[in-house]
Amino acid sequence: MTLSLSDAEALFGRMLDGEMEDGEIAATLIELADRGETAAEVAGVVRAMRARMQRIAAPAGAIDVCGTGGDGQHSLNVSTAVALVVAACGVPVAKHGNRAASSKAGGADTLEALGLNLARASELAEQTLPDLGIAFLFAQAHHPALARVGPIRKALGRRTIFNLCGPLANPAGVTRQLVGVAHPSLIALYRDAMQLLDTEAALIVSGAEGLDELSIAGTSYMASIGLSGIGTEISPDNAGLAPHPLDALRGGDAAYNAAALRQLLLGQPGAYRDAVLLNSAAALLVAGEVEDWLEGVEEAAEAIDKGLAKGLLDCWIDTVQ
After folding, report:
1. Which residues does 231 contact at the CB level (< 8 Å), separation at least 6?
2. 34, pLDDT greater than 90
3. Which of these, 70, 74, 63, 73, lies nearest to 96 by C-alpha position?
């Protein structure tokens, strides 16, 4: 039996409020995962999470660029770099993120290795978002209600519905998003769930290899909300970029990924730069900043090559010390 949106919101509200026993929570999560969650159930959980999260105010037009994770590719931090590049293009980015769960270094780990004080960045998010055009919203600081289910999720050791919901519960309440999902089969589910929420514009993307971002190696699949003429597939050449093998994006620990991101912001060419340009173009389309992929790549490249993205990162680090 599937749950309606309102029933899912009520059930998971009880779960997050500590009104369910551990065994009942575990059984519910397993049952949903085994049969496959519905869009209404995902949207209901997101509504329950949003009702209990620590919100911040955001300027008009703010977006998020975030993936579900779990793709197993252990690649460099593309969405983190995209956040910096897109913010340097003048689009406010409320970057929702966390430490690594299945990879060696999540966005939070890499930003910390770059010198960003994560706790202060989260505390000052409501200030830096309008002032600098970027904020990092540390998931564990903004979603205290999830502490109730954390140990149970860890003990289960498997994907649950909560893995799907994080990107949709941004504490800044953004209504424009670039969301990467770990497999193309999840795109329709995500699109339908986002349509049940207050989404203004979105691109839901997945690389054909099972990548939670647009792939620089080949074809990616997409669904859009509130955008016209986007299509359902894209390859690097459609954006004027050369393809690269996924191995060229292989990441490492936080220090390794941070060093690579620094080199990217200094203008180093290669697979990482082109992956970031492709995904930045997608985010700029979602923001309504550009009209096509080629314009998006050009604007993103300019933000890097003029030192705007690097300058933004350095200023952000200094501001939140």
Report:
1. 222
2. yes
3. 63
Whether the CB-CB separation of 318 and 263 falls below 8 Å is answered with no
Q: Please report, in range form, the residues annotated as the binding site for anthranilate.
A: 67, 98, 153
Q: Which residues are annotated as a binding site for 5-phospho-alpha-D-ribose 1-diphosphate?
A: 67, 70-71, 75, 77-80, 95-103, 107
Q: Cα–Cα–Cα angle for 275, 65, 207, nearest 5°?
A: 45
What percent of the chain shows pLDDT beyond 90? 88
- Known binding site for Mg(2+): residues? 79, 212-213
In whole numbers, what is the pLDDT of the chain averaged over residues?
A: 94
Neighbouring CB atoms inside 10 A of 268's CB total: 12
pLDDT digits (tens, 9 = 90+) for 231-245: 999 999 999 999 999
pLDDT at 75 over 50: yes
User: Binding-site residues, please?
Assistant: 67, 70-71, 75, 77-80, 95-103, 107, 153, 212-213
Counting runs of H as helices and runs of E as strands, what totals does the chain give? 15, 7
**Cα separation of 48 and 201, whole Å?**
22
Q: What would the mean pLDDT of 271-300 be, rounded to a whole number?
A: 98
Mean per-residue pLDDT, 180-185: 93
DSSP single-letter state for residue 53: S
Residue with tokens 């270094």: 105
Indicate whether 102 pLDDT > 50: no
In which residue are the tokens 């979105």 written? 202
203 forms beta bridges with 178, 224
Give 139-206 as a DSSP string.
Answer: HHHH-GGGGGTHHHHHHHTS--HHHHHGGG--TT--SEEEEE-SSGGGHHHHHHHHHHTT-SEEEEEE
Query: Residue 103: what pLDDT?
Result: 52
Structure token pair of residue 92 = 């406010």
